[in-house]
Structure formats: C-alpha cells, structure tokens
Amino acid sequence: MANDLNKREELLGDLQEKYDAIGQDLNTHLSGLLQQEPLTYWDYIQVDALLGLQTKRTVFPDEMVFIMYHQINELIFKMILWEIEQVAHHQALNTTFFAERLLRISRYFDMLTTSFDIMTQGMEVEQYMKFRNSLAPASGFQSAQYRKIEFASTELINLIDARFRETIDRNTPYEHALDHLYWQAAGKDYTTGKKTYLLTAFEKRYRDEFVAFTQEYNTINLAAKFKSLPAEDQKNSELIKAMRHYDYTVNITWVMAHYRTAAKYLNSGSKQAEATGGSAWVKYMHPKYQKRIFFPELWSEKERQNWGHDL
Questions:
Q1: What is the pLDDT of residues 31-65, one digit of tens each?
Q2: Which sign does the torsion angle of CA 40, 42, 44, 49 carry?
Q3: How far is Cα 292 from Cα 307, in angstroms, rounded to an integer?
Q4: pLDDT tens digits for 238-250?
C-alpha cells in the first residue's frame, strides 16, 4: 500500500512538472481526465471511419478488392515515410538506428511485394478488364506518397530520366528537375513535349507540394544522411547490407511484382492493353529501362549496368 502511495505521489510530481513547463494547471487536466470515457479499440483505431472509405463505382464485386488493396498500400506508404522521417531528422544519427529503420522499411516493402498475390490471384481477369474502364484516367502512377518515398530516399539526380541523367545540370532548379524525372516518361510524349491528362492532373494537384518536399529532403534524404556519417561508419557492413537490401527491394523486387501483376491483366487479351491513365507502362515500370538506384555508390559498375536485365 505504501509503495502504491509513493508511486502515485511520484507520478503526480512528474505530471506537475510536465504541466508547469508549459504553463498549464495540473488540476484542470486531472479534472478533464475524470470526465473522459474509457478508450475502446474501435475508437482508437477509428474502425468505423476506416471501413467507410470503400465506395465501388461499378457492379463488379472484385472492384472492392482493388479499392481496399490500394488503400492498404497507401497506409503502408505512410508507415514507410514515417520511418524515413525519423532517420532524416535525427540529430545524432548512428549506424544502429539507421540500419534498424532501413530494415523496418524493407519489411514493409517485402509485405507489399508478397501482397501482390492478392491482385494477381484475387481478382477475376474478366471482371477487372470491365471495371477498370470506369477508373480512367486515374492510375496508381498518381500515388503522391510513393513519389515522396523516392524523393526522401535518394539524390534527385538518381530519379532523373536515364536519357537526361548524364547531361542535366545537377544544380538545376527543382521545378526544372521535376520535368525530367523518370516517371514523366509515363505521361509525356517526348517528341512533342505534350503531357497527358494523367500527368497534368497529377502535377496540378501535387507539383508545389513536391517542390517543397524535394527542397526539404535535398540534404536529409537517406543517401545524404549516409554520406553525412563518419567515414568509418560508412564502411559498416550491416548498414551497407541494409541499404542495398532496401534499394533492391524497392527498385527491383517490389517493382517487378507490380510489373508482373499489370502484365497478367493488361496482356490477357488479343493485344496489349493500355494502363488506365494511358501510360507507357512497360518502359516506365521495368527497372532495366530507367535503372532507378537509390544508392549507386554501393553497387559495382557491373551491378549497375545489369540492373534489371536478368528479370
């Protein structure tokens, strides 16, 4: 009993110190705590709100699978960005913390990779090829969170279209760089310079946000944080292994799972179908064309040249 009282006094003292530090009255907050309802799982997780976010546009049951799967992806992307943010803004970064967070992120992408079976095996091709027409011109290309993951992972030069990577000025304004990113190839005719609606709508919604985000992460992206470590730490085998695993998982394993899923459905007819947004999805997605590599310095010249060619 005495121990319980001592513990209670200690907690009250800690609370008093906490609220004094921000100029708040402890009694007010204790009174508010007294009036609160007990917390439930469904309120804490916001289950009702979460389960109310799925709205089909067609009569086909498998469209619900498609919607929920992509919503799950966006939640996982948010988790990934949350982990990257902790590394990017860490004031005393060390190799242990860095490697642990990278492995967390890789596990999220491992889950995303294996989860593509939900798409490849969990929908009838006939249903998908019908309800997909109601989705146009929307496309998974338009996931802003995924683009932010890329921006926060590597130097912007590594996301430039492979055709311009050697010649573009590394000090070019962010706005100019965004016009030459690899995924522009999915929404632009480079012979005319004309952008598709897929791309113009995406940029109208997110361009200013992307510019601000790339500016913020210019010196604190994962590649930059690695280079900011002491030279000895940059040789840490566990950290290098974690970074290579993340790089390969995102830019090869996960991308190819996505690619093969798209191929199953879009190649199911007598001729190859277009993506819903009208993108040139084969050359946009397959890693051998763009050679997206977050940490090129951690791969040999041969590995970089053969990136995606054995798939």
A1: 999 999 999 999 999 999 999 999 999 999 999 99
A2: negative
A3: 8
A4: 999 999 999 999 9
* Ranges of each domain in the chain: 2-36, 61-305
**Tokens (6 digits) for 159:** 């996301």
What does the pLDDT average to over 106-113? 93
pLDDT(72) > 70:
yes
CB of 307 within 8 A of CB of 291? yes
DSSP letter at 196 equals P
The answer to whether 287 and 311 are in contact (CB under 8 A) is yes
Q: How many H helices and E strands in the chain?
A: 17, 2
pLDDT digits (tens, 9 = 90+) for 253-283: 998 888 888 778 776 655 555 554 444 556 6
Confidence of residue 174 (pLDDT cuts 50, 70, 90): confident
Own/partner contacts of 254-261, CB < 8 Å, gap of 24 or more, are: 254/109, 254/112, 254/113, 255/285, 255/286, 255/287, 255/292, 256/286, 256/287, 256/308, 256/311, 257/112, 257/113, 257/114, 257/116, 258/116, 258/285, 259/285, 259/286, 260/116, 260/120, 261/116, 261/119, 261/120
* Beta strands, E only, 159-227: 188-189, 194-195
Question: What's the CATH fold of domain 61-305?
Answer: Methane Monooxygenase Hydroxylase; Chain G, domain 1 (1.20.58)
Per the CB < 8 A criterion, the answer to whether 200 and 159 are in contact is: no
Closest CA to 134 of 216, 205, 59: 59
The whole-model pTM stands at: 0.88
